[in-house]
UniProtKB/TrEMBL annotation:
UniProt organism field: Kribbella pittospori
InterPro entries referenced in this protein's UniProt entry, alphabetically: EACC1
Domain of life (superkingdom): Bacteria
Name the record gives this protein: Uncharacterized protein
UniProt lineage: Bacteria, Bacillati, Actinomycetota, Actinomycetes, Propionibacteriales
Length: 113
């Protein structure tokens, strides 16, 4: 990944989740992030079948924007996919059922690094 702080957003395709649907959903998330002028880039995919993008945390309020967009994006998913965010080697998992209770924790995670 390029310079700056980048957070990896990874969706697990385990538990019968269709990889093509994950890819399409991440493409939609990328469009929404681009609409807020947050750069994204591809992440080399591991052999575990997950799909991922990286989001640059640039500019004032970028962390809050990512949390808000991610929350909206997760709530629109039909299935409670597990989404893992990784920043500087530290990770946090969120999904639709737990997003409301973990939203503050996610915001703190993104701002403490």
């Amino acid at each position: 990944m390029g310079e700056g702080r980048w957070v990896e957003v990874r969706v697990s395709t385990h538990h019968g989740v269709d990889e093509k649907k994950c890819v399409k959903a991440l493409q939609q998330l990328r469009k929404e992030l681009a609409g807020e002028e947050l750069p994204t880039q591809d992440v080399v995919e591991p052999s575990d079948g997950s799909v991922a993008i990286a989001v640059a945390l640039m500019g004032a309020g970028a962390e809050q924007t990512v949390v808000a967009l991610l929350g909206d994006w997760i709530r629109r998913r039909k299935h409670p996919w597990t989404v893992t965010l990784t920043l500087e080697g530290d990770s946090i998992e969120v999904d639709r059922p737990t997003f409301e209770e973990r939203e503050r924790e996610l915001a703190e995670f993104l701002t403490r690094h």
